[in-house]
Write a structure and sequence with these properties.
By secondary structure, this protein is of the alpha+beta class. It has a domain of 76 residues: outer membrane lipoprotein receptor (LolB), chain A, CATH 2.50.20.10. The chain has 3 helices and 6 strands. A 6-stranded antiparallel β-sheet has the order 1-2-3-4-5-6, with no helix packed on it. Strand 4 and strand 5 form a beta hairpin.
Length: 110
């Protein structure tokens, strides 16, 4: 099932905070969807555009693969966040970052 189906009951303009998104995704076994994003940064004349895929495997794995403008991957699995860009990989655990625990709590309750 695609992630887009998980959001059918929610208007396209609705914004999610991370705990809400993780709770919604925890109801699905798995899914994948394409995304596009625009970031507005003070000092730049126009938006920064990015696109890629989001995939989810219950109960606790979420992967964001950015394909454009450059390839990078961010994956949340359990209480671990991994980021890979330009050949470098970084890893954090939510216990080392109290403000990061929001992405692990909804899945842990499942």
């Amino acid at each position: 099932m695609v992630l887009a189906l998980a959001f059918c009951a929610v208007p396209a303009w609705a914004a999610f905070d991370l705990p809400e998104l993780m709770t919604l995704l925890a109801r699905q076994k798995s899914g994948e969807a394409r995304f596009t994003e625009q970031r507005f940064v003070h000092g730049l004349e126009g938006p920064l555009d990015a696109s890629g895929t989001l995939s989810f495997d219950a109960p606790d794995k979420l992967v964001r693969r950015t394909l454009s403008p450059r390839v990078e991957t961010m994956a949340v699995e359990g209480n671990t966040l991994r980021s890979r860009a330009a050949g470098a990989t970084a890893r954090w655990r939510s216990t080392a970052c109290p403000s990061c625990s929001a992405w692990s709590k909804p899945c842990a309750a499942r």
